Amino acid sequence: MTDATFTGGDVEAFKQAFRRHAAGVAVITARDTDGRPVGFTATSLASLAAVPPLATFSTARSASTWHALENTDHVAIHMLGSDNRVLAEKLSGHADDRFVGEHWHEGPHGVPILNGVTAWMLGRIVERFHVAASAIVVAQIEEGALGPDSAPLLYHERAYHAPRPLA
Amino acid sequence: MTDATFTGGDVEAFKQAFRRHAAGVAVITARDTDGRPVGFTATSLASLAAVPPLATFSTARSASTWHALENTDHVAIHMLGSDNRVLAEKLSGHADDRFVGEHWHEGPHGVPILNGVTAWMLGRIVERFHVAASAIVVAQIEEGALGPDSAPLLYHERAYHAPRPLA
Question: Is A22-155 CATH 2.30.110.10?
Answer without folding.
Answer: yes
